[in-house]
Each structure stands twice: as C-alpha cells, then as structure tokens.
Amino acid sequence: MSEKDVTFQYCDEIIGQFEKVCKKPIVEKSSVYYTGVDLGTACVVVAVLDENFRPVAGAYQYADVVRDGMVVDYFGAVKIIRDMKAKLEEELGVEELLYAAAAIPPGTDTLDGGAVKNVVQGAGFELTNLLDESTAANAVLKIKNGAIVDIGGGTTGISILKDGKVVYVADEPTGGTHFSLVLAGAMHIPFNEAEVLKRDSSRHKEILPVLKPVVEKVAAIIKQHIQGYDVDEIYLVGGTCCLTGIENIIQKQTGIPTFKPKNPMFATPLGIAINCTKDIMD
Ligand code: ATP
Asked: For 168-181, what is each residue's pLDDT tens digit?
C-alpha cells in the first residue's frame, strides 16, 4: 500500500460507506444522529451519521439555489433541505433529525454565513456548527501540510495547511459550471445535456481534450494562490474533481504532486457531518 493510499484510507472508507447508505440506509437504533448539510452551487448534499459518526443515510440533489457560493434562492434552498430532511427521517424511521452542521466557502463568512445558518434552521434543524469547507474536507482527508483544492460547481476553494492549521484561504468563481459551458459550446448541445455528459465517467476520456483548457485555467488559479507558500502536495476534493485525469493536468501545470480520493464529491459533506455536535449555536 502506497503512502497516498494510507492518506486516503479513512476518506475512501467513509465515502464508500456513504455511497452505499445513499442507496440503502442503515436502519438501526442510534442515541443521536449527526447531520451535515452542504449547500452547493450545483448540488445539495445531506449526510447523516450515527452516534459513532458512521454514515447511516444520505441524499443529494442538483439544485440552483446558490451561485458563486452565495445563497440566491433562500426559499428554494429551505424547501429542498426540508424535503430531504423529511425523506431521510422517513427512511431511518426517526421522528426528527435534530442536529446539523453546515459549511461556507473559504473567505465568505462575513458575507454569507448568516444566510446558510438561516436556511439550515429554516429547514427545521438546530445548527450546531458552521465551519469553512476546507476545514470540513480535512476532517476526512486528515492532512497536515499542503493545499486542499475544492473544485465544486461554481467556485474553486483553495486552502493551505501548515502543521494541521489553515494558514491561507481563497475562493475563486471558476468551477464545474464553466466546464459544462465549455462542453456545451464545443459539442453544440444544451447546458443541461453537457452537465449530464460531463458526469458520465465512461465519456471522460473523450471529453477531456475539450475540457483541458479550463482545467489548465483552474491550475493557473491554484498556482497563483499558492505562490509564496511552501506547498509540496495538492489534494483535490469537490464534484468537478471526479473528472478522470484532472489530477494529472493540475500536477503537470503546477509542478506539484496532486492527489484525489476515489470519490472527491462527498469529502466536504461528510467532513461537515463529522463536525456536527449536540451543542446548539446561538
Ligand atoms: P460549490 O462548492 O461551488 O458551491 P457544489 O458544492 O455544488 O458547488 P460539488 O457538489 O462539490 O459542488 O460538485 C458539483 C460539480 O461537480 C458540478 O459541476 C457537477 O457537474 C460536477 N460533477 C459531479 N459529478 C461529476 C463527475 N462524475 N464528473 C465530472 N464532474 C462531476
């Protein structure tokens, strides 16, 4: 087993478990449930853990309630999360999923922390933690040094860690949506069709040459932000990093060894759930 396999061991394990319970929840008694709510630009993910912080249920839904990391459709967001909460409660046979944690993109705390908090509370949860996305992702990656790059739907979040502490954060408005726009233009297909095509891993080899310039643009953004920091490794998370081979292009462009877990899409939502507690925020 290589060093990187060891690094991702916990991450791959918990994500694998989460993928299973999204299809078939584990209906067992638990004294408490911890929920993570990831309100993204492209996708809303809700992850439920049991008293031992093991995934027992989960759901995700593509939605357009957040743009560039900001909540733009408050009522739409509340409804989606309330409906997902109700569905998960029914699946698990529990009266109420009470405790939830949520996250916001790096550097947006003064702007949007309040909106995300209100959405989660408006959906009927008690909010117990509101953390930044990179800290959340690192709860499953567990890295001490390097850069965590979260390429989501609307934005790319960059966080640099030194001895386990976040020393720099940035969020840039380039993400998977731009990949889909490029694909739609190149293939003369509607945006929604390009989105679906992009998510089909059996087509990744064919579409990668079209998407390469956008990946290189993301790599240039990463390079610019990590300049002046001692970054020896880049760790990719976020749904866009599911794109087969994205890590090789980023590694080539930045000159820095680049790694990703088996499914980078659920690292942040699970990290959020792991940071859920029983202490309700004011
Ligand atoms: P943001 O973090 O910018 O707010 P988000 O949280 O919605 O956005 P994620 O859920 O991490 O972002 O990722 C969603 C993006 O990942 C979408 O653009 C989606 O098309 C893309 N994506 C999801 N699965 C795949 C896949 N298998 N291959 C390529 N791209 C994918």
From this structure: 999 999 999 999 99
